[in-house]
Amino acid sequence: MSLLTIGSVAYDSIKTPFGSADKALGGSASYFSLSASYFSRPSIVAVVGEDFKPEDEKILAEKNIDLTGLQKTAGKTFAWGGQYSFDMNSRTTLFTELGVFENFKPELTEDHKKSEYIFLGNIHPSLQLEVLSQITSPKLVGLDTMNFWIEKALDDLKKVLAQIDILIINDSEARELSKEHNLIKAAKIILGMMKTGFGRGVPSATEGTPPPTLIIKRGEYGLLMFNGESIFNLPGYPLEDVADPTGAGDSFAGGFMGYLAKTDDISQASLKQACVAGSVMASFCVENLTTVRLQNLRDEDIQKRMENFKHLTHFELN
Amino acid sequence: MSLLTIGSVAYDSIKTPFGSADKALGGSASYFSLSASYFSRPSIVAVVGEDFKPEDEKILAEKNIDLTGLQKTAGKTFAWGGQYSFDMNSRTTLFTELGVFENFKPELTEDHKKSEYIFLGNIHPSLQLEVLSQITSPKLVGLDTMNFWIEKALDDLKKVLAQIDILIINDSEARELSKEHNLIKAAKIILGMMKTGFGRGVPSATEGTPPPTLIIKRGEYGLLMFNGESIFNLPGYPLEDVADPTGAGDSFAGGFMGYLAKTDDISQASLKQACVAGSVMASFCVENLTTVRLQNLRDEDIQKRMENFKHLTHFELN
């Protein structure tokens, strides 16, 4: 099934205690689409400047990512610089240069308007709304956002939330959005803001409509997925070394949405599998700097980690 | 099978943002044995003072806990006071009065020396060694410790570690003991300090000897269990309200060891089930102040939460 994402294609400059990268391909749409490309063919809607290098476009094109929605305009590509602390749990933004992203007005092609699986990356909620309004018959819409928009554009954000099916945010964002510390209570409040509200029930394999689902990411601790009365926990994949956490969340979203678009199955069983697929992609992402690890994965390596998640979490009761 | 624990029976004074308790039955051996009593018959080795009230003894006796090892001596029962922050994640110790616990010299009865399942609660490692030396043929020995002993009595602690099968500590203790931040690396280092060392393999159902196993507790995020090359993750049970986190770790240990003593099965499958049993008991413990919730549970409520853990964690891959 068709999968469309809107987000940033950027140049990231990253410093970690163990290595650094200068002006490397980054941005939410890059991580998302590289990750999703292992499951289906994602289309990017994004903008880059005149400085965007052919070799970086090639990285995306070689993974069969549809770049017809990648606008090129006068100016510089969105650039971000960040530095990680020794334990990789906190990072400082060194600079943010919006460049051509500042005046980005997403215009979808006729083909892209017909997309069925949509992921609205972390941009201004009014832009997310604008994109969504151009989609003619979405089957499932996922959304990312951040504290900045919760604080600065809550009204617009609530309008988007009322139109989407799957929200993927982290625990601090969930707490801020719901004004509730306990994540189970927070989830109920947030699901109440979404398309069909809380308590509509868990999607079944036979049900055709998308479930209102909230996924709360908890960094190294993994995630909680809430829908209906169900809670599903998936831990983080155990890694001895993390080289660069940048893009882990976008890689999760890419694996998650890519898996759903591939299977075209939005049952509860499939949503859980999509969580596993997303977590596996995030675990690969952080093993090397920037998008390097996402560029050359083998399907059997992905499958192996998905199986490993079973060993990590499953038990039998007598 | 026989199950013996050594630890504290204490009077706890607890303040939380939502309620408080004054001189209520507490201490590691109380929480451990109340929790374990739902699976097998635990024996306590501990000391109390002249102020220990018959009604508190009755709470333990009514759960069929063996109190023949509960010494009563001149002086006051160990007393502890603590206060929790609003989000229940941090607590301040208001006072610690060791009382009769200060000169506690555990002497086991002939019956207790023959115990098969042993849990050495969080006391000075030299006392843990002294108890262990009296046990004639232990089948499985579990141990708790804390940062204080890692800092103040590391040599003695290492001597105990070399003689035990299962270590149950939290993440900050694991990091301090191993001097390693990454928990997977930390686990390898710690397993190397234990009885049979790292890499002896995962216990199988047919194997009769106890596995060297490390359980790292991560508060609301649950636990990681390490042995051989295996890692098992169990999340915390999702609760909307936590009344009092006191004793959660001891309740986990009680449920874990109680389950193993009941089944007398130390296979990997059984260890995982014991983790689930322990986590269920911890989840009940924190739902009310002090030991109140542990005093009156129904077996079917325990069974139900064990089943719920499956819904929370299991998925099927295509």
Give the topology.
2 copies of one chain form a homodimer.
Chain A: E1 3-6, E2 10-16, E3 19-26, H1 28-36, E4 42-48, H2 54-61, E5 70-72, E6 79-84, E7 91-97, H3 110-113, E8 117-120, H4 125-134, E9 140-143, H5 147-152, H6 154-161, E10 166-170, H7 171-178, H8 183-193, E11 213-217, E12 223-227, E13 230-234, H9 248-263, H10 268-285, H11 292-295, H12 299-313
Parallel strand pairs in A: 1-4, 1-8, 2-6, 4-5, 8-9, 9-10, 10-11
Antiparallel strand pairs in A: 2-3, 6-7, 11-12, 12-13
Helix pairs in contact in A: 1-9, 4-6, 7-8, 9-10, 10-12
What does it look like?
Two copies of one chain form a homodimer. Chain A has helices at 28-36, 54-61, 110-113, 125-134, 147-152, 154-161, 171-178, 183-193, 248-263, 268-285, 292-295, 299-313; strands at 3-6, 10-16, 19-26, 42-48, 70-72, 79-84, 91-97, 117-120, 140-143, 166-170, 213-217, 223-227, 230-234. The N and C termini of chain A lie far apart (41 Å). Chain A is of the alpha/beta class and 318 residues long. In chain A, strands 5-4-1-8-9-10-11-12-13 form a nine-stranded mixed sheet, sandwiched between helices. Chain A has a four-stranded mixed sheet with strand order 3-2-6-7. Chain A has twelve helices and 13 strands.
Tag the structure with descriptive keywords.
12 helices; nine-stranded mixed sheet; homodimer; alpha/beta; 37% helix; 318 residues
Give the oligomeric state of the chains in this entry, treating copies of one chain as homo and distinct chains as hetero. Answer: homodimer
N- to C-terminal separation of chain A? 41 Å
* Number of helices in the DSSP assignment of chain A: 12
Assess the beta-strand content of chain A as a share of residues.
15-25%
Largest sheet of chain A: 9 strands, mixed
Order of helices and strands of chain A: EEEHEHEEEHEHEHHEHHEEEHHHH
Mean pLDDT of chain A: 93
What structural class should be given to the helix and strand makeup of chain A? alpha/beta
**Which two chains share the most extensive interface?**
A-B, 38 and 38 residues
Low-confidence stretches of chain A: none
User: Gyration radius of chain A, to the nearest Å?
Assistant: 18 Å
Q: Tally the beta strands of chain A.
A: 13
- Measured as a percent range, the helix fraction of chain A is 25-40%
**Strand order across the biggest sheet of chain A?**
5-4-1-8-9-10-11-12-13
**Form type of chain A:** globular
